[in-house]
């Protein structure tokens, strides 16, 4: 057993560890790992697996790099804006180790291509951020008989688990037989994310993958929970073994479960709403106005009231002069508190994209006062686009 001469120096610091040694380094060199999602979780996982010397790495991601990604997706940079994330990540890994074998796949993984794309690899990493793909990757891992290292992160929290590891290792469906309601699932764009949280979980995914390659994983099913501002920050929950009635993994060789016949999007409640487009819908005549119309009203000194229904934290980032902050939850709880009966002062409601403002305006109109209540189409993002280009977009 031997390595190229330069690898002894490159990987020497980890090869002297008892858990790795020369045999372990060769195992990593011969391993093939695929990462689905080159974003907040995928970037740190890829970076450390590539640096550790894993011989073949597949990257599957059809999204392109955007400015908002750079806060947490550490393999991308300003020069790769607009590039496919898979290509950008591959370039970054090649700068770490030019000898890495990297398979770049700029396609959307789906039920029709998942098995073909994942089959050449020993271990699958789920670094995605949507429920349909999570279920798909778990089912594909079971069908292919491969372990799935699954990570998730949102706001200040993250979680990590390894599925389908060992003869009794549970799959994702064992833990979550049914997906949560569609309206209960948010995204990083809606809820926010601390970049370092994705770094913690992504790095731990790399560690779990290396343990599996080295044969050092004890295969105990567990769910690691991480809370960045919690104490203690880490908590481990022991999971049960494979469920006897799981449709995917209870007896994959004999059951009738089919990946290609499963509509994962519908199973998870349908297509995710496009909140930007939804906020731009004109709505009922007289109920909504454009950002420029609101600007004209504000300039005319007509008596009016502007209510901003974003959370207080977002309101502190940026706001229209003279607006009042009433978070949506507070307004919906007591709408009568924020409207005066028989008032001649019209009310205009704004939010980030023009969706929450519609809910708030409807609640205020139901009070039945004399005030006219309208909300702004497209919200503050439309204000920035059509009125004040210096107004921040976040």
Automatic annotation (TrEMBL):
GO MF annotation, one: URM1 activating enzyme activity
Record bears the keyword Hydrolase: no
Any Gene Ontology CC annotation: cytosol
InterPro entries the record matches: MOCS3/Uba4, Rhodanese-like_dom, Rhodanese-like_dom_sf, ThiF/MoeB/HesA, ThiF_NAD_FAD-bd, Ubiquitin-activating_enz
Cofactor(s) annotated in UniProt: Zn(2+)
SMART domains (UniProt xref): RHOD
Cofactor binding: number and manner: Binds 1 zinc ion per subunit.
Any one of the GO BP annotations: tRNA wobble position uridine thiolation
Pfam families per the UniProt record, alphabetical: Rhodanese, ThiF
Keyword presence, Cell membrane: no
PANTHER family xrefs: ADENYLYLTRANSFERASE AND SULFURTRANSFERASE MOCS3, UBIQUITIN-ACTIVATING ENZYME E1
Protein family (similarity comment): In the N-terminal section; belongs to the HesA/MoeB/ThiF family. UBA4 subfamily.
Entries under HAMAP family matching the protein: MOCS3_Uba4
Protein name per Swiss-Prot or TrEMBL: Needs CLA4 to survive protein 3
Organism: Agrocybe pediades
UniProt lineage: Eukaryota, Fungi, Dikarya, Basidiomycota, Agaricomycotina
Gene: UBA4
């Amino acid at each position: 057993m031997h390595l190229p001469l330069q690898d002894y120096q490159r990987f020497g610091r980890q090869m002297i560890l008892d858990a790795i040694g020369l045999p372990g380094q060769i195992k990593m060199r011969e391993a093939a790992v695929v990462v689905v999602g080159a974003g907040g979780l995928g970037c740190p996982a890829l970076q450390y697996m590539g640096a550790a010397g894993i011989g073949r790495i597949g990257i599957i991601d059809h999204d392109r790099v955007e400015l908002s990604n750079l806060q947490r997706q550490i393999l991308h940079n300003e020069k790769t804006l607009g590039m496919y994330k898979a290509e950008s990540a591959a370039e970054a890994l090649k700068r770490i180790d030019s000898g890495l074998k990297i398979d770049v796949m700029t396609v959307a993984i789906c039920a029709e291509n998942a098995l073909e794309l994942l089959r050449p690899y020993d271990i699958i990493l789920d670094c995605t951020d949507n429920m349909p793909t999570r279920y798909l990757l778990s089912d594909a891992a079971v069908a292919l008989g491969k372990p799935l290292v699954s990570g998730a992160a949102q706001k200040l929290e993250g979680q990590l688990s390894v599925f389908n590891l060992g003869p009794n290792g549970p799959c994702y469906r064992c833990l979550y037989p049914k997906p949560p309601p569609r309206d209960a699932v948010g995204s990083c764009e809606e809820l926010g994310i601390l970049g370092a949280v994705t770094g913690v979980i992504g790095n731990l995914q790399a560690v779990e993958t290396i343990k599996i390659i080295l044969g050092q994983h004890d295969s105990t099913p567990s769910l690691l929970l991480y809370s960045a501002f919690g104490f203690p920050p880490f908590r481990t929950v022991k999971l049960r073994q494979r469920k006897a009635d799981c449709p995917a993994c209870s007896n994959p060789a004999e059951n009738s479960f089919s990946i290609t016949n499963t509509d994962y999007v519908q199973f998870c409640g349908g297509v995710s709403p496009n909140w930007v487009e939804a906020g731009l819908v004109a709505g009922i005549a007289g109920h909504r106005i454009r950002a420029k119309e609101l600007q004209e009203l504000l300039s005319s000194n007509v008596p009016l009231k502007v209510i901003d229904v974003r959370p207080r934290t977002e309101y502190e980032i940026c706001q229209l002069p003279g607006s009042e902050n009433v978070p949506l939850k507070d307004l919906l709880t007591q709408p009568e508190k924020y409207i005066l009966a028989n008032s001649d002062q019209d009310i205009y409601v704004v939010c980030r994209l023009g969706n929450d403002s519609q809910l708030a305006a409807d609640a205020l109109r139901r009070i039945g006062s004399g005030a006219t209540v309208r909300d702004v189409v497209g919200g503050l993002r439309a204000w920035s686009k059509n009125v004040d280009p210096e107004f921040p977009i976040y």
